[in-house]
Design goal:
It is a single chain. By secondary structure, the protein is an alpha/beta fold. It has a single domain (3-214), classed as TIM Barrel (Alpha-Beta Barrel). Helix content is 32%, strand content 20%. The chain contains eight helices and eight strands, in the order E-H-E-H-E-H-E-H-E-E-H-E-H-E-H-H. The chain has helices spanning 16-26, 47-56, 74-78, 96-105, 151-164, 183-189, 198-201, 206-214, and strands at 3-6, 30-35, 61-66, 83-89, 109-114, 132-136, 171-175, 193-196. Strands 1-8-7-6-5-4-3-2 form an eight-stranded parallel beta sheet. Strand 2 (30-35), helix 2 (47-56) and strand 3 form a beta-alpha-beta unit. Helix 5 packs parallel to helix 6. It starts with a strand and ends with a helix. The relative contact order is 0.16. The model has no long low-confidence stretch (mean pLDDT 98). The structure holds D-xylitol-5-phosphate (DX5) and zinc ion. The site of D-xylitol-5-phosphate has 22 residues, from strand 2, strand 8 and helix 7.
């Protein structure tokens, strides 16, 4: 099953209620980008905004942490009602295995994220500990960037390794620059969760874009 996770970073923050209704009606997951201004050169939103969305969400929430020292906050995000997935960047954590364990202890799915300049091989030791992996299609920090085409091969490489290790339940999520122009290549390569901010929220018909991205 392919799931589409609109990134609320591209929503109209003065009309967040409209964005929430759209995701509830047409999408599968909420993708929520938390940036601390240290791990990435940008600051987005945090607990109060995610809690407000949680109160109205009828779909599960996927929190993508772009913060240093994720061990400090991962469990707190995981405890927010309806948050079912929490991910953090491999190179942001001193002990990635410990952060994955904290997230799982809160009953959430735990995921590792890599930017385009981090070799897929660096994930291998942690794959058996992950429920999902997020492969960035752009450098984390900003919405609206151009998709890096090599991402498709990186997804395929990860999928091959997961199959080799017998990890048939490992989900592969792709985030950044995803749109109907690359979604089918990503799905064929093995992605099962597609995040899209600009492509969905800046579209005339977000519902149509969501359904287009699910088709091969
Ligand atoms: C980027 C974020 C993405 C971003 C995606 O750092 O992790 O989730 O919002 O936005 P688009 O789809 O516009 O690239
Ligand atoms: Zn994201």
């Amino acid at each position: 099953m392919i799931q589409i996770a609109p990134s609320l970073l591209a929503a109209d923050f003065l009309n967040l209620g409209d964005a929430v209704r759209m995701v509830n009606d047409y999408a599968d997951l909420y993708h929520l980008d938390v940036m601390d201004g240290v791990f990435v050169p940008n600051i987005s939103y945090g607990f109060p905004v995610i809690q407000a969305i949680s109160a109205k969400a009828t779909k599960p929430m996927d929190v993508h942490l772009m913060i240093t020292d994720p061990i400090k906050y991962a469990a707190r995000f995981a405890r927010i009602p309806r948050v079912e997935m929490v991910s953090f960047h491999l190179n942001a954590a001193e002990d990635p295995a410990a952060v994955l364990a904290e997230i799982k202890a809160e009953g959430c799915k735990a995921g590792l994220v890599i930017n385009p300049d981090i070799a897929v091989e660096r994930l291998y030791p942690y794959l058996p500990l992950c429920d999902f992996v997020l492969i960035m299609g752009v450098f984390a920090g900003f919405g609206g960037q151009k998709f890096i085409e090599e991402t498709v091969d990186r997804v395929a490489q990860l999928k091959r390794k997961a199959d080799e290790l017998g990890l048939e339940n490992l989900e592969i999520e792709v985030d950044g620059g995803v749109s109907p122009s690359n979604s089918s290549a990503l799905i064929k390569a093995g992605a099962t969760i597609l995040v899209a901010g600009t492509a969905v929220f800046k579209a005339e018909s977000p519902a149509e874009v969501i359904s287009a991205m699910k088709s091969l």
